[in-house]
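Support request, please re-run this one:
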Amino acid sequence: MDVETIGIALGGVVAGGLVAAGIGSWWWGRQLKGAAFRNSKLDQARQFAEQQGVQVKKQVEQLQKEIEQLRHQLARAKPRHEVYTAPPPPSRQELEDLLLRAETPKQPEAFPDTQVIPRKR
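Re-run finished. Output below.
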């Protein structure tokens, strides 16, 4: 092999290496951009979840305060002692009268009666 052939081969290897490095750089850059995008989305979701958590905690605290106030109001309120008396049950005679007056619903027929149509000859 002469020096010229070795130079061309070496140049080809260097050029191939540069092309491979460029393609690798492009591919890894694309992968890193995707990872950075997913990372930013996850960060936004985490911040939103934290914000929602803080808001929920505030609402729970507010509801607990309201419940405590209502319990104090209930404790201070005058107790009402209302007595509920149920009406007396109907007598046997009244029940029998109700049952006798009740009508049983008529069951509709499933199909109408068959009618024979005379043939013309």
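The CA atoms of residues 18 and 24 lie 10 Å apart. The longest helix spans residues 3-76.
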